[in-house]
Amino acid sequence: MPSGPVVIAFDGSPAALRGLREAAALLGPRPGLVVVVWEAGAAYDLATIPSRSLDLPPGRLDLRPAAELDRALYADALELARRGAAIAVSLGMPAEGVAVADEGSVRDTLVQVVREVDAAAVAVGKHAHGALHDVLLGGTAEGLLRHAPCPVLVVRPVSPES
After folding, report:
1. What is the CATH number for 109?
2. Residue 65 lies in a domain
3. Does 57 reside within a domain?
4. Of the candidates 42, 102, 109, 46, which has an alpha carbon nearest to the alpha carbon of residue 70?
5. Were 123 and a residue from 17, 23, 57, 161 both cysteine, which residue would form a disulfide, CB within 3.0 to 4.6 Å?
């Protein structure tokens, strides 16, 4: 039986906030780990686009601004995770927040974190994307249902009827 925390996927969106609140309400006595997945290295990709199209060697580019932007993106992700953890704590769930660099996809990264911490469960808020979006790009919630080695709490979006 898993002995780790409840992993809560968090991106600051209303869907993620709803998922966090429901996880805290339902699973609150167990500690939470609020995880923000961020795209590490994206700033470097942006910085090298002109050199690729002009066939310039990468050494001619000053990558310091990209490194600064990458650090800023990490700091923002960490701050968002800490805010999510503070919300969980305010709802009675002891929690900490972490920012984790992506491992190809948000789903793959979350599954890796779930395994590493021996998570008791993983919670995610379902975004109100259409079926075509989920088919073409894949849905994180659906991917977690298929690949997470622990129970998955998927919190559906609020509908006008509810």
Report:
1. 3.40.50.620
2. no
3. no
4. 42
5. 23
Let me know if residue 105 belongs to a domain.
Answer: yes
Residue 60 belongs to some domain of the structure:
no
DSSP 91: T
Task: Report the C-alpha gap between 148 and 162 in whole angstroms.
Answer: 28
Q: By the 8 A CB rule, do 87 and 26 touch?
A: no
Which tens digits make up the pLDDT trace of 58-86? 555 566 777 888 888 899 999 999 999 99
pLDDT digits 0-9 by tens, 25-70: 999 889 999 999 998 776 656 555 555 555 555 555 566 777 888 8
SS3 letters for 111-141? HHHHHHCCCCEEEEECCCCCHHHHHHHCCHH
To the nearest 5 percent, what fractions of the chain are helix, strand and coil? 50, 15, 30
pTM of the model as a whole: 0.82
Instruction: Report the DSSP beta bridge partners of residue 153.
Output: 123
Residues of the domain holding 89: 6-42+77-155
Which residues lie below 8 Å from residue 6, measured CB to CB, with a gap of 6+?
Answer: 23, 27, 30, 31, 32, 33, 93, 119, 120, 121, 122, 123
Query: How many separate domains does the chain show?
Result: 1
Which tokens belong to 52?
Answer: 């690729």
Three-state secondary-structure class, residue 99: strand
